[in-house]
Amino acid sequence: MVIKTAEFVKSSQKWQDCPEPTMAEYAFIGRSNVGKSSLINAMMNHKDLAKTSQTPGKTQLINHFLVNENWFLTDLPGYGYAKVSKSLRKDFEKLITNYILNRQNLVNLFVLIDSRLTPQKIDLEFMQWCGESNVPFSIVFTKVDKLKPGAADRNVEAYKKELLNTWEDLPEIYVTSAEKKTGTDNILKFISETNQF
Ligand code: GTP
Ligand code: MG
């Protein structure tokens, strides 16, 4: 897919405030600092469409972008950020889960996982919740440029093994680097193939 236009639409504090659900929507989710906003920028060939930061917890609202005047791309706040209070963390979780469960035009959720880490409980639990809630999702491993060749594959295999303990089928898996712009074309291909709105 060629990106002709990518524009910021709005930031929303809750799903009820999101733009009218008139087009297909694809959302990026994952732990704080995993690289959601960076990957969105890499996919859109844009340096700072979505705000990024070295400090976790940068994205705190639901951010909508309109791509090619034809579909929405959504940057969500990260989950599991330890440095905020428990009640604020609960608020974020509620915001995210309500958005996911209520957003009618959401076609697919991309769950981002840091390719440097062995399977993490919080990510496995989140994917388990997606499966149980019938939320369509794909897995996107990030920051693969930070690893030696082969090391990411081992972590990907470890995740697959964990998921196959519970599920018969595996979701689509993408291995990416926002830094080197690897894997982004495959995500865009998936989006163009599933955007039937
Ligand atoms: P929150 O909005 O806080 O939840 O974070 P986020 O998931 O949007 O992460 P963000 O895109 O802001 O990136 C976090 C940090 O990781 C930044 O310092 C990025 O430069 C860095 N980063 C993101 N993707 C990559 C990547 O592919 N390679 C490398 N080397 N660094 C990356
Ligand atoms: Mg962000």
TrEMBL record:
Q: Cell division: present as a keyword of the record? A: yes
Keyword Phosphoprotein present in the record's keywords: the answer is no
CDD domains (alphabetical): YihA_EngB
Q: Which cofactor does it need?
A: Mg(2+)
Keywords, sorted A to Z: Cell cycle, Cell division, GTP-binding, Magnesium, Metal-binding, Nucleotide-binding, Septation
Q: Name one Pfam family in it.
A: MMR_HSR1
Annotated GO molecular function terms are:
GTP binding; metal ion binding
Looking at the record, the residues that make up the EngB-type G domain are 22-197
- Tell me a GO biological process for this protein: division septum assembly
What's this protein's function? Necessary for normal cell division and for the maintenance of normal septation.
Task: State the similarity comment.
Answer: Belongs to the TRAFAC class TrmE-Era-EngA-EngB-Septin-like GTPase superfamily. EngB GTPase family.
State the name under which the record lists this protein. Answer: Probable GTP-binding protein EngB
Q: Which organism is it from?
A: Epilithonimonas lactis
Output the lineage of the source organism: Bacteria, Pseudomonadati, Bacteroidota, Flavobacteriia, Flavobacteriales
Q: What is this protein's gene name?
A: engB
